[in-house]
Amino acid sequence: MTLRVAVIGSGPAGIYTAEALVKQSAEPVEVDVLERLPTPYGLVRYGVAPDHTSIKSIANYLQRVLELPQVRFLGGVALGAHLSVEEMLRAYDAVVYATGAMVDRKLGIPGEDLPGSVAATDFVNWYCGHPDVDPGRFTLDSPEVAVIGVGNVAVDVVRVLAKTAAELSSTDVPRDVLERLEESQVKAVHMIGRRGPEHAKFTLKELRELGELANADVCVRKDEAAVLGGDFPRQIRGNIDVLQSWAAREPVGRPRRLDVRFWLRPVEILGTDRVEGIRLERTRLSPEGRVTGTGEFETLPVGMVLRSVGYQSVPLPGVPFSDATKTVPNEAGRVREREYVSGWLKRGPTGVIGTNKSDAAETVRTLLSDLEGEERPPRAPIDALLEAKGVRPVTYDDWLAIEAAEADLARTLGRGERVKLVGLDAMLAACRPVQPLP
């Protein structure tokens, strides 16, 4: 008998889960990868900065998994909106949830809900062409912007803000977004961390890229780059050396300025009708290693604040969820009978893209062990259920048509290998062209 499994989510966690099922199952297996968007690959498509083409090449590996004969892509199908958990379990022997961590954590300070105070993920989704974000969402009309956080996402955001539209024109940035970047009034970007350089979460490679910006001076204060002690791992030592070298050089007068700040925490976002500034408090570490305020404050006259202090998952309809950990409670991937979880939704937003591979393998081992030797009744085909609901999934061939349309658009505009289509209507029109009337 063929084992039939549904994987909810087509990012790396979901596709690695599909691959592990094909590789580990001793019996024939069919895997449907369901995705609410018409496009696969999750954060590889909508989270990786457009100028990081080498990381985007991971999509080539994920593509090969979707092309396995045992795997089927069903885009435009959402748990809750189109199918319930109960309906999924009637159609499949097991269901694996792998929807990732889709929203930013909040700062929890006054003024955070003012217009102009937004999650960095919204900004990333915007410049990556995510269909959930209106391409007109950001106007970039403020001369100064604050980015709260010193991880790789924050580095990506400030790099995109610091670059010119011309520097990004060969990437897949959507047309409307590129036009907004061309009109940007941003002159200064402040990247702010609560702790010191030795605690920053960005990688050395990402950090060095900031020093290569042709359009922006990168500035670091000597007192904020100073570090006590010197016995640090190689990665951290490299970060410290780079930051201290920047602190020792003078700006050369490039059009934009990037200030990398440490030992500051936001305490209030200022403004009446929109963001007009951010109030920061100088910090230090307590003897217990906690960040504490010193009572020394400064205010930056920023018109936009982007928070990048971590991702968190959101609940799925009908699926258990822990508000404390922002994950689906599980044991080695097992949630309930015939229900499993993989990726950030399982363990929280930790690790790199490749971490999802070993994580998926663990979940699949648990799933196959649970179902081994079990009597499995015939399952109602999902296709008939979707058809009865009037849902026409986006197939893998449909996705290839969207890719081809994006490549055609890039050729038309004289821009790189592809330019992303924005909005569900544009993507569906690319794979389902309107037939002429007879």
Protein topology:
Elements: E1 3-8, H1 12-24, E2 29-35, H2 43-46, H3 53-56, H4 58-66, E3 71-75, H5 85-91, E4 94-97, E5 103-104, E6 117-119, H6 120-127, E7 144-148, H7 152-162, H8 165-168, H9 175-182, E8 188-192, H10 204-211, E9 216-220, H11 222-225, H12 234-247, E10 256-261, E11 264-270, E12 277-285, E13 291-300, E14 304-307, E15 311-312, E16 334-336, E17 339-341, H13 344-347, H14 355-371, H15 382-388, H16 396-413, H17 424-431
Parallel strand pairs: 1-2, 1-4, 2-3, 4-17, 6-14, 7-8, 7-14, 8-10, 9-10
Antiparallel strand pairs: 5-15, 11-12, 12-13, 16-17
Question: What this model shows, in words?
Answer:
This protein has about 450 residues and is α/β, with parallel strands linked by helices. About 35% of the residues lie in helices and about 20% in strands. It has helices at about 10-25, 45, 55, 60-65, 85-90, 120-125, 150-160, 165-170, 175-180, 205-210, 220-225, 235-245, 345, 355-370, 380-390, 395-415, 425-430, and strands spanning about 5-10, 30-35, 70-75, 95, 105, 115-120, 145-150, 190, 215-220, 255-260, 265-270, 275-285, 290-300, 305, 310, 335, 340. The strands form four sheets. It has a six-stranded mixed β-sheet with strand order 3-2-1-4-17-16, sandwiched between helices. A six-stranded parallel β-sheet has the order 6-14-7-8-10-9. A hairpin with a 2-residue loop joins strand 16 (about 335) and strand 17 (about 340). Helix 7 (about 150-160) runs parallel beside helix 10 (about 205-210) and helix 16 crosses helix 17 (about 425-430).
